[in-house]
Amino acid sequence: MLIAGEPSGDLLAAELVRALKTRSPDLECFGAGGPNMEAAGVELAFDMTRHAVIGLWEVIGKYFEFRRSMNELLRLAVELRPDVIVCVDFGGFNSRFAGALRDYERHFLSHLSWKPGLVQFVSPQVWASRPGRADDLARNFDQLLCILPFEKAWWAKRVPGFPVEFVGHPIVGRHAAMEVDEVVASVDSGRPVVALMPGSRGGELRKHLPVIADAARRIAMAEDVEFRLLLSNAGHRVVAERAVGEIPNCEIQIGDAGRLLRSATVALSKTGTITLECALHGLPTVTFYKTSPLTYFIGKRVVTVPFLTMPNLLAEEAVFPEFVQDEASPANLAAAVVELLRDTARREAVRRKLTKLTKSLGGPGAADRAAEAVLKLIGETAAKD
Q1: CA-to-CA distance for 44 and 50, rounded, in angstroms?
Q2: Do 86 and 19 sit in the same domain of this protein?
């Protein structure tokens, strides 16, 4: 059984399923996720990716939907009794699901021999905020598969004895599979290209598009450049066109982030996994993030890490200029991008640092290594039965 609640988790789960079926073709997979999982052969009870939210208010607004989904998944698990349940990312929901299932086992299923192995694939960022959550996760899960190099040591110190395995970051394999000599489908004007990446979720676009559009206008007044605005799907095109329609030399691109990152000179991006993709492409990037005042107020008090941008955390320094909340103003973002555009030596220095830090992410094959760990746990669970 697999549970993934966001598009990124849906993709990661699909890669895992394909790796599992390569090793065990008769493996039956079911659960909740999205179209990538379904295409990989997972029998979906429902689409969980519609729940993708950001910010405290969006989570509260979907509370009853989450509750219904959790109850349905608990019912499904008890009915079909899988050998192993793999919870992919989606930490808040999946941690609660695991706790609820363990409670149900203790109170209602103690007479049965069924006790599935529980795996969390991708560590919740407990090392960044509310580290006490680590104890609950270790109590309910049998194994944690992490994708960031520093996480295994963090968990070993925090919860000694809890099985944690670093399988590498999946974007390394995706990056390696790209055609590096692909011809970019646009006419080379000789102008620098600035990649604009406001995010993929509706809430992110509402917060980020106005800021990124204003920053682009300022950049255009200072430098003769071309802009490429990246959207995850065509459904957001109308909103994006209204935001950037009057910006000169601005093209909207749907999907295929790799093609954009290979052609760009500098990127202006929201924080998140996309910044690791920028790092793998050696692309100097200015990062930013804005959320609701309440979410920021709470987050400011619980987040303990010095950066939100993952390459900065890995390097333990601000390789990418980072601007959060009020600091993420159009003026600040534009100034940082223009500075990178004008300073060739600085861009080269950033690329050298990126080459070094991305080596720590592990080699291609994260899904393969995760599959081996899951199959091993299935074997151990069967042996106990």
Answers
A1: 13
A2: yes
